Amino acid sequence: MYHENTKFSEGSKTSYLTGKLINANHLTTSNFKEVIEKNKFGFVKANDNLNNLEVIILGINPEKGNPFEEAVIKEYWENWFKEMKIKNYQIKSADLPSNLEPIILKVISGK
After folding, report:
1. 43 near 21, Cβ under 8 Å?
2. Cross-strand bridge partners of residue 43
3. How far is residue 81's CA from residue 93's CA, in Å, rounded to a whole number?
């Protein structure tokens, strides 16, 4: 999640997540969850009590070179959703559009 014109931070929380930030925060080893928790890294909370919201994140695309980057990205998103009380969410890696279509249709149809 990143757009140059909306980049800001509040303490250790940010409005974005990039490979550069992941590296700068030393989230490149298997203990990344402890580092995130200890330093309270994450996204700036956008809202409260969104328990009726359903979210699908499609196309996370970690940079090559850090075997933990995909897990770090998912951890950031999951923590953010939990903080805002979003209970129904899915996070999917980048894939061919034809492979993502069944996922989207399943969520839309509620099956």
Report:
1. no
2. 14
3. 17
Q: In terms of pTM, does the model score above 0.90?
A: no
Eight-state DSSP code of residue 88: E
To which H or E segment does residue 60 belong? strand 54-60
Q: Strand pairing of 9-10 and 13-14?
A: antiparallel
Q: Give per-residue burial for 6-41: e unless 16+ CB within 10 Å, then b.
A: eeeeeeebbebbebebbeebebbeeebeeebeeeeb
CA distances from 4 to 13, 16, 19, 106 (A): 16, 9, 14, 33
Tokens encoding 101 = 């279509």
Residue range 71-108, pLDDT digits in tens: 999 999 999 999 999 998 989 887 777 778 888 888 78
